[in-house]
Specification:
11 helices
Length: 260
């Protein structure tokens, strides 16, 4: 079945949604990179020291995207907004347990299907990750299948929070097992490996606690500092003139500075 657009041409709904999800991921990366920039520099700093041509082009691109999506939002039927209820300390503790248990259970489920990183990927990633991490991590490519949505999502939404859309994510990190909803790509793998390092250094319980408490405060998963750091390091890795850096050192520095 296909929908009909205003020009009379049929729109392939599966293809449309695939491209929409890819655009969403690109926007998410841009949002996280901008959020990181905003944390580090004031608007005055950017105006005084930033290249004005880049600032103008970035501002114009953001304005164009805002106009485009604002037009779409105006014609989307409104959904009733869930009532926000401040979670109690016991609910926060319970949510931390949900996340830690989910990550552990999914790791156990997918680990038997996992394969080691190829020598090609190890060679590409060794300047950024220790040999121990690259040797221990296992990869699963679902190729069209999707990781299941956790049962506790219904309870999270009842509190007025919108949890991450797992089915739309490129990859998910379950301790030392990285699962791709579709096929592996270097950007998503790098992002996932940053989370593997975070969990390795922090431990599962502390990682889950930091993630949940930040999510409650930020109310959006891409502004959770653990996610912001993974997005920013993956963007740094993808720059045309790649500089070598240690992800472990970056994670340790953020822990020391209490940035998570």
């Amino acid at each position: 079945m296909c929908t009909q657009d205003s020009s009379g041409r049929g729109a392939d709904a599966p293809q449309l949604n695939s491209e929409l999800q890819q655009a969403q991921l690109e926007l998410l990366n841009a949002h996280c990179a901008t959020h990181q920039l905003r944390l580090r520099y004031s608007a005055d700093d950017l105006v005084r020291f930033g290249r004005r041509d880049i600032l103008r082009k970035s501002a114009q691109a953001a304005s164009d995207l805002h106009d485009f999506y604002s037009t779409i939002v105006r014609i989307i039927p409104a959904d009733p907004a869930p009532a926000f209820v401040e979670p109690t300390p016991s609910q926060v503790t319970q949510a931390i347990g949900w996340l830690a248990t989910y990550l552990s259970q999914q790791r156990k489920h997918y680990a038997p299907m996992g394969v080691p990183l190829s020598q090609h990927l190890k060679a590409a990633f060794w300047p950024y990750f220790s040999p121990e991490v690259l040797d221990e991590v296992r990869i699963v490519e679902l190729r069209g299948a999707r990781v299941g949505v956790p049962d506790f999502y219904t309870k999270v939404r009842a509190l007025g929070f919108e949890p991450p859309e797992i089915a739309h994510m490129d990859s998910l990190t379950f301790l030392d097992v990285v699962v791709f909803n579709q096929e592996l790509n270097e950007r998503s793998l790098f992002h996932a490996l940053v989370h593997a390092v975070q969990i390795r250094i922090l431990g599962l319980e502390e990682y889950a606690e930091l993630w949940v408490r930040s999510f409650i405060r930020c109310r959006a998963h891409f502004t959770v500092p653990l996610e912001v750091h993974a997005f920013s390091l993956a963007s740094k890795f993808l720059r045309p003139s790649r500089e070598r850096f240690s992800v472990e050192d970056h994670v340790l520095r953020w822990i020391t500075d209490r940035r998570y």
